[in-house]
Design a protein that fits this description.
The structure holds 2 protein chains of 2 kinds. Chain A is mostly helical. Chain A has 17 helices and 3 strands. Helices cover 65% and strands 4% of the residues of chain A. Classes of the chains: A mainly alpha, B alpha/beta.
């Protein structure tokens, strides 16, 4: 039976838009395009709809910033209170109480926390975002992944502000970054955003069905933080005095290396902190004693770091697609569950 | 004509849990088991809605009409089946959904417009129209949390209709704002109809459907009962809602829904058979033949008159004891007599029905079965000839017949009975 819908035999999914059937008004686009709503998840379509709705994503980010920080300089300064406090606590605990002798320890901390704050803030924020915006989710059709991604977007803005503070601090303390590693920071950033986005999308959907995901995420993220070399150094775990990796790794060290945040944090530290080692002579040693060399990061070249980041990026891309599929599956009943 | 919305074998299952575990902790404690009863909110729904058509969906609460609308909009995903929508779509399920109270009206227009699928440039282009439509020129930079509820829904409606979609889904939101704004909304819906856009209205108000729709679908328990022209659909809906469905539990349970039938409905007035039309102010008699298989002692005759724009002009009082009729087995003739019809020019349609006095059952309802035409011999215009008496009186007291002097304009207005009273 002819239904009067002409559609090219070749490519049905390309014809219309079908993220949960949300049809977007696209100026200039044919008004004859067909939207298909069914129980299936079409990944290509979801990606396309995300791209079509980038305006909405920007607007959601801007809205959130406006609501939270009232669009004022003081508002944004306020948003820096929390990261500043965290930084000072770790500094006091490790530098002053635990007598860490690493020079410019604050910059080392800052480089790692920069990455962590973006990852942590996005994952935690995104977990509750779909539940928090139930009003829109229940009544308006749009790609709901955007809600999770908008949280990432807000955290990118906060990240940018922290970068400005960091640059000012580096100028103040006269610290030179290592420029050849700064050059691969964009790659690290893309990998970080892809991974963070994937996790955010996944958590935002799961939390609709299991509302304690929020609390679980908090605890897991804390464990994750201590499992990443931010307040301590990679060298403390893996490197012996002569910058060689320990000949045999424990299983726990393999687990450690699976953490995709680790290479990203290490790249940031390598670029910003600029050094892979420092020497330290503890006071009270007899004269003529050679200062001990401490390795904080492996002395690999840019290629090795970039290679690791590339691997993280590829895995993250896969996870992002997977997150979209899982989200698509769970999204079908959001309106009912909320 | 092309099909705008094609719904094929749509079913939607909801799970009614005896006890719902919304946290991982509870799931683990209960071993991951969550007993549920499947509930089919939609069951094998098939319907085709043509382009440019205004289509109504009628049904009582919980019949699945809103679920269907949400599936078409893509807010819910069907369990099985497929829906194809041709062209752009906007759903008005709740006005102002997604408004951020802390943002200004201006920011909210952008946010809401984007959520409904407009690009930034598009919203900028329509911004002034939206503000003008919502009548919020003076408040557009105020935070939405300070808006009155009327202003809130007006803004929501203004954004939604200015999206100008090919397909508009409306869920009983037309009744917003004051009378003037409602008129404006209806005008906008009519404009959409003229422009050939497809509109799907979900309602449990028969009048909304009758006045706006070309076709209507009646749903019950997630299934399509009928798809028909509005009059017939409303009859089925009323029978379903107030008749068969509720009769089972009522005391008159012995009477089935098809005990009584209304046959021919005739119009009789001074012009019948000669001029074809009646004059304004004359008497009108409407007779309806009623066949009855069993005695109906508690009948209530009802009549409704609609004008040629399908607006309801008159519907009889459901509690009026004068409308009570007692129909013996076999039936008879019901006579409706209007001694003085104050209607002005126009063609009016007549609907008649018989229901039980407790409003639990509609025995039969003939929707707009016959028409009559009214011509107005005078030059008054409008819908109704209101009894009018005009008299003239001078403003000042005591000086009958004289033109009031300059300055007398400020004299106090004469009160009734003032003139004759002693100074």
């Amino acid at each position: 039976m002819s239904l009067g819908i002409e559609r090219p035999a070749s490519s049905e999914p390309e014809q219309g838009s079908s993220i949960g059937g949300s049809t977007r008004f696209v100026p200039g686009q044919s008004h004859d395009r067909i939207t298909v709503v069914n129980g299936k998840v079409q990944l290509g379509q979801r990606l396309k709809d995300l791209w079509i709705n980038r305006d909405l994503l920007m607007l959601l980010v801007r809205t959130e910033l406006k609501v939270k920080y009232k669009d004022s300089a003081l508002g944004y300064a306020w948003s820096m209170l929390n990261p500043a406090l965290v930084l000072s606590i770790y500094y006091v605990v490790f530098k002053i109480i635990a007598r860490n002798h690493q020079p410019n320890f604050a910059i080392w901390l800052f480089a790692g926390l920069l990455v962590w704050n973006l990852f942590n803030g996005s994952s935690l924020g995104a977990t509750s975002v779909v539940v928090g915006k139930a009003g829109i989710v229940k009544k308006v059709a749009f790609p709901r992944e955007l809600l999770a991604l908008s949280v990432v977007g807000v955290n990118i803005v906060l990240f940018a502000i922290q970068v400005v503070v960091l640059v000012l601090a580096m100028l103040l303390f006269g610290i030179t970054p290592s420029w050849q590693f700064v050059a691969i920071l964009p790659l690290a950033m893309v990998a970080l955003l892809m991974f963070t986005g994937a996790l955010s999308i996944f958590l935002s959907a799961v939390n609709v069905y299991l509302r304690d995901t929020q609390h679980l995420t908090e605890v897991l993220l804390m464990a994750w933080f201590w499992g990443t070399s931010i307040v301590y150094t990679y060298g403390q775990i893996f490197l012996s005095g002569d910058d060689k990796h320990h000949p045999s790794l424990d299983w726990i060290q393999y687990v450690y290396l699976v953490n995709p945040i680790t290479p990203i944090v290490m790249t940031f530290q390598r670029a910003i902190y600029g050094k892979t080692q420092y020497s330290y002579l503890s006071p009270g040693q007899p004269a003529g004693t050679k200062p001990t060399i401490y390795h904080v990061l492996p002395t690999w070249g840019v290629g090795a770091y970039a290679g690791l980041l590339g691997m993280v990026l590829i895995v993250s891309l896969g996870l992002f697609m997977l997150a979209l599929i899982v989200f698509g599956r769970l999204e079908g009943n959001f309106a009912e569950e909320l | 004509m092309a099909v705008a919305i094609e719904v094929t074998d749509i079913s939607k299952q909801f799970r009614l849990y005896n006890e719902k575990h919304t946290s991982l902790k509870e799931r683990v404690i209960h071993g991951g088991k969550m007993p549920f009863t499947p509930f089919w909110a939609l069951r094998d729904v098939n319907v085709e809605i043509n382009q440019g058509e205004t289509f109504g969906i009628l049904g009582r609460n919980g019949c699945g009409k809103s679920t269907l609308l949400k599936c078409v909009a893509g807010i819910l995903k069907p369990t099985t089946g497929e829906i194809k929508v041709r062209g752009t779509l906007a759903a008005m399920l709740e006005l102002g959904a997604g408004f951020q109270p802390d943002l200004s009206g201006r920011d909210n227009i952008y946010l809401n417009g984007s959520l409904l699928g407009l690009s930034r440039a598009d919203i900028t282009k329509r911004f002034d129209d939206i503000v003008a439509f919502a009548e919020l020129e003076d408040f557009i930079d105020n935070q939405v949390k300070f808006y009155s509820s009327g202003m809130y829904v007006r803004l929501g409606f203004a954004v939604a209709v200015n999206v100008e979609p090919d397909v508009l889904l409306v869920d009983e939101v037309l009744a917003v704002g004051d009378a003037a704004f409602q008129r404006k909304c209806l005008d906008h819906v009519k404009k959409f109809q003229r422009e050939g856009r497809t509109i799907v209205v979900v309602s449990h108000g028969a009048d909304t459907i009758r006045q706006n729709c070309a076709r209507a679908m009646v749903m019950n328990h997630g299934q399509v009962i009928t798809v028909d022209e509005p009059g017939e659909a409303i009859r089925v809906y009323l029978a379903d809602l107030l008749g068969v469905g509720t009769l089972e539990g009522s005391e008159s349970g012995g009477i089935a829904g098809n005990v009584l039938h209304i046959g021919a409905v005739m119009v009789d007035h001074s012009g019948s058979g000669i001029r074809g039309h009646m004059n304004s102010g004359e008497a009108l008699t409407i007779t309806a033949e009623v066949d009855s298989l069993a005695p109906v002692p508690n009948g209530m005759a009802t009549i409704a008159i609609h004008d040629d724009e399908n607006e309801l002009v008159f519907a009889s009082d459901p509690d009026d004891p004068a409308c009570a009729i007692e129909v013996p087995e076999g039936g008879g003739i019901v006579k409706f007599f209007f001694p003085d019809v104050p209607l002005l020019d126009g063609t009016y349609s007549v609907s008649v029905g018989v229901r039980s006095d407790t409003e639990t059952a509609i025995y039969d309802w003939k929707d707009q079965v016959t028409k009559f035409e009214v011509a107005n011999p005078g030059r008054a215009t409008g819908r109704v000839r209101l009894p009018l008496d005009v008299s003239f009186q001078l403003r000042s007291t005591g000086t009958t017949g004289e033109v009031p002097a300059v300055g007398a304009e400020f004299a106090p207005l004469a009160l009734p009975g003032w003139e004759g009273s002693p100074a």
